[in-house]
């Protein structure tokens, strides 16, 4: 009995360290094998003071098979944590910096500093110039948006990066003057003068049109009349567009097709529409109907299934929806109603806010800078430590 105990105590550290080493190796292989399996995109917002380091987040995202990440800036610590991972990045120029980018030299300097150093090891494939610019009342910003996009585009070309990085901007759905039925979709009258030349630019540059869509806002505004099944992708009879006879079983697709119609009405049939943000909050203020973990889980889970099915909208059935879920983490410093701080799939400690079948692994510490090369080395070190532990005991 006493001998067995001593024997156990002697072997325990060795077995523990060996198990950790094997786990590190196995996890890394599993992440590699699944990378790129499902084209899930996610918004990695950082308006918070309690988020894990980018190196740990790199592990989390890869363990979830996330293949596309969208940032609101071009955080070098994030981009550096994804070298050689194959994960595709959308980086952003914040609204506060858009006007400065009208100057070609500033645009060029921005790319040289924030994009070029990471290519091609980190796959930056798109730059968003501004976010939801037409939601605000800043007329100078609205007027500067297209010239800034043009400067960024020309700077990419001058640096030999044309065709490798798209240039666009992300809009909120309130650019729409009408969105129902989808075939009657039209931009707001005050937006059209800005939008017409932006569409010409996107068409020329072969860049996508990005739209942030939140069926949750429609539900929150009128919970008594907006059917929950229709906004949560649950079985329902749907709504038929009387002009096209197309049936919509969910609001998100109706919103996207209304944007296609609005673009078409301004003469363009050659621009892809992508969903740069969509999501559902898991918590809200008392007057924010529907902000619960149950509904958030239903919305996100059903959305992920449709992404996996590579489904298109009724108007473009053969073009799989291209979606960036909002958002990776709850962000505790976001202003506004409580829902704004509760869109995350994860709490900052890596615990899922609700279960949608996305398995994620947030490593407990920064044991590598997110580069896979360090992993076998770490495993070796752990095995060496195990051997030393064994020989000393
Ligand atoms: C972007 O704007 C912020 C805030 O005004 C400023 O501190 C920063 O230097 C700007 N960055 C660039 C690249 O212009
Ligand atoms: C913009 O201006 C209009 C009219 O002046 C006002 O109703 C609206 O609330 C303003 N929007 C913002 C975001 O400030
Ligand atoms: C740029 O956007 C177009 C249109 O959506 C797309 O076909 C192309 O693959 C994108 N380019 C890159 C480098 O991602």
From TrEMBL:
Transmembrane segments: 374-392
EC number: 3.2.1.39
Molecular function per GO: glucan endo-1,3-beta-D-glucosidase activity
Any Pfam family matching the protein: Glyco_hydro_17
Alphabetic keyword roster: Glycosidase, Hydrolase, Membrane, Signal, Transmembrane, Transmembrane helix
Origin superkingdom: Eukaryota
Signal peptide stretch: 1-29
One biological process term in Gene Ontology: carbohydrate metabolic process
Record's catalysed reaction(s): Hydrolysis of (1->3)-beta-D-glucosidic linkages in (1->3)-beta-D-glucans
EC supergroup of this enzyme: hydrolase
PANTHER family: GLUCAN ENDO-1,3-BETA-GLUCOSIDASE BG1-RELATED-RELATED
Family membership: Belongs to the glycosyl hydrolase 17 family.
Name of the molecule in the record: glucan endo-1,3-beta-D-glucosidase
Species name: Panicum virgatum (Blackwell switchgrass)
């Amino acid at each position: 009995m006493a001998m067995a105990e001593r024997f156990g105590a002697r072997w325990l550290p060795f077995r523990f360290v060996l198990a950790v080493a094997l786990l590190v190796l196995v996890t890394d292989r599993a992440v590699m094998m699944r990378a790129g399996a499902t084209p899930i995109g996610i918004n990695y917002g950082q308006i918070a003071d309690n988020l894990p380091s980018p190196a740990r987040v790199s592990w989390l995202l890869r363990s979830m098979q996330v293949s596309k990440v969208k940032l609101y800036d071009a955080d070098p610590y994030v981009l550096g944590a994804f070298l050689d991972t194959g994960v595709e990045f959308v980086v952003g120029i914040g609204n506060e910096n858009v006007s400065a980018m009208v100057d070609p030299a500033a645009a060029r300097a921005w790319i040289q500093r924030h994009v070029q150093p990471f290519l091609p090891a980190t796959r930056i494939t798109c730059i968003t110039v501004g976010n939801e610019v037409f939601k605000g009342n800043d007329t100078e910003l609205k007027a500067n948006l297209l010239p800034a996009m043009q400067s960024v585009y020309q700077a990419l070309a001058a640096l030999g990066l044309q065709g490798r990085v798209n240039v666009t901007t992300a809009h909120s759905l309130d650019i729409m003057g009408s969105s129902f039925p989808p075939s009657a979709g039209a931009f707001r009258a005050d937006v059209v003068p800005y939008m017409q030349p932006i569409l010409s630019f996107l068409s020329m540059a072969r860049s996508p049109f990005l739209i942030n869509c939140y069926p949750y806002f429609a539900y929150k505004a009128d919970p008594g009349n907006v059917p929950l099944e229709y906004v949560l992708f649950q079985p329902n009879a749907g709504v038929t567009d009387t002009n096209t006879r197309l049936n919509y079983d969910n609001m998100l697709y109706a919103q996207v097709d209304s944007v296609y119609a609005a673009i078409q009405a301004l003469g363009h049939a050659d621009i892809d529409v992508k969903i740069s943000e969509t999501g559902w909050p898991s918590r809200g203020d008392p007057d924010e109907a529907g902000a619960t973990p149950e509904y958030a889980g239903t919305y996100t889970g059903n959305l992920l299934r449709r992404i996996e099915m590579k489904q298109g909208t009724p108007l473009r059935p053969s073009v799989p929806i291209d979606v960036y879920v909002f958002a990776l983490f709850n962000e505790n410093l976001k202003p506004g109603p409580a829902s704004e701080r509760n869109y995350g799939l994860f709490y900052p400690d890596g615990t899922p806010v609700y279960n949608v079948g996305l398995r994620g692994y947030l490593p407990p510490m920064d044991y590598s800078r997110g580069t896979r090369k360090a992993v076998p080395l770490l495993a070796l070190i752990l095995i060496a430590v195990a051997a030393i532990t064994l020989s000393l005991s």
